[in-house]
Specification:
The protein is of the alpha/beta class. The chain has nine helices and ten strands.
Length: about 250
Amino acid sequence: MKSDTLGQIQSDRDGKKPVVRALDLATGDEHLIHPFQGNSNDPLIEAAQTAALADKSQVFEADGKRIFLQVFNPPLRMIVVGAVHISQALVPMAQIAGYDVTVVDPRRAFGSDLRFPGVTLSNDWPDTALETLTPDRRTAIVTLTHDPKIDDPALNAALKSTAFYIGSLGSRKTHAARLARLSAAGFDEAAQARIDGPIGLAIGAKSPAEIAVSILAKITQTLRQGATEAKTASVTRPDKAEASAMSPTA
């Protein structure tokens, strides 16, 4: 790899930009592709997009050429809105799975170092926090407060981003009311459909830890299989679990 290529890859990673190195296996010629910048019908760029989304390097063959597409994606990120019981279980799971996690909660009694030691915390309101965090297509956003005053601003900001996953805690009744508010705010059905609600895979989860497992599983499914394939029935949260999730005590 040429030194200037390596330098550009590092710069792109620092700027949280996916980049793919295209190496001609016959000639050794190389160039970089930024797969999500602009539109193109070029099959090579489309192949680079596919490789970046799959987070897996691959060989592209066309016109007698074999091009190795080496993927350099920025780290995965997760923004968790609501420093609740489910978050306390979800955060360490997500960190083990390779996510750089930020917990957002304007309620300082919830979003404290005591309850989330060693975790990046923001006590800004979610819309302000997300503006600063600039979620991208390598970011998952999860809202868990079950409080429209906090979750709705987060969802408004999330739907304006390219986050690959957006999920929100609540029963089907709660989610229907949420969608009605988003519709009134100007978000169409396509935008609303981006929200996984009720959140998580339908595995019958009840406790905060089980719900956290279902959430991370759904995020993983969406990341690896795509949003369309991952559209499965979500978990309906019992009121007891929702009440437990909202408790500020550790």
